[in-house]
Amino acid sequence: xxxxxxxxxxxxxPYIHAFRDRLVVVKIGGELLDGGPVIERVLPxxxxxxxxxxxxxxxxxxGKQVDEACTEQGIVPEKHRxxxxxxxQVRDVLVEVIGRQLNGRIVAWLREHGVQARGFADGVTGAxxxxxxxxxxxxxxxxxxxxxxxxxxxxxxxxAPDGEWSxxxxxxxxxxxxxxxxxxxxxxxxxxxxxxLDAAKLVLLTSVAGVLESSTAAxxxxxxxxxxxxxxxxxxxxxxxxxxxxxEALRALDRGVPRxxxxxxxxxxxxxxxxxxxxxxxxxIVPDAEGMR
Length: 293
What we know:
Blueprint: H1 9-19, E1 23-28, H2 37-51, E2 55-60, H3 63-72, E3 79-80, E4 83-84, H4 88-112, E5 117-118, E6 128-132, E7 136-138, E8 141-143, E9 149-154, E10 167-171, E11 173-175, E12 181-183, H5 186-196, E13 201-206, E14 223-225, H6 226-234, H7 240-254, E15 260-264, H8 270-276, E16 283-286
Parallel strand pairs: 1-2, 1-13, 2-10, 5-10, 13-15, 14-16
Antiparallel strand pairs: 3-4, 6-9, 7-8, 11-12, 15-16
């Protein structure tokens, strides 16, 4: 059985040189946290990035796992337009499942493999600031979001308080003005961190290979400009969950992030091949000014 070990040293060397000491934000989709893929495939690649001199920063959610935990506790998950209404009781489940269990597992694995990392237990949520989302009025219905926050800004000094860079592992939780924990969208956190901290790249790891032009396409589109991506959305070629990813990618480009990558986190070495090779293996979204290679 052939196992993809990733790019060779000669091929990767120019990219290692170009991105040394640069921030790379990696958002891990919640679907990758169910079972072993994130541990078995993604995190070893993050270790390689760190040992090659890059500065990876991880962001994750865990919506599926929270839904399962709520059901086990007899809590009926309430959502509006795909976004979770977060009562204090649900917020407690979020903190336990996303903050302590999932986040703790990722941080522990990184530390066990010789890489310094900081997570929820180390106070990284203090770096992400948010305000409570105001109730939404739609016709005769008012939606009270509860403990849901909208990210306002990032406190960069919170990521390296002692001057030494440890891999931050951010759960989809933020700190409100009065210190309360708020449920925030993981994609929104990743975009804001990448833009505010001048990241070289934002990588959105999902369960699919990238952006496909059709359901029968042999592989993902290798590279697409922002305007072309908008065209594909308008034409309905990009829809569903991928549309949401593209919208976040475009938001990141609008905020000055120079590169956004969408790729699968389920296959071996995809993160390394996307960052350290010419051809990559997912979809790269670039600003219009750069055009196509």
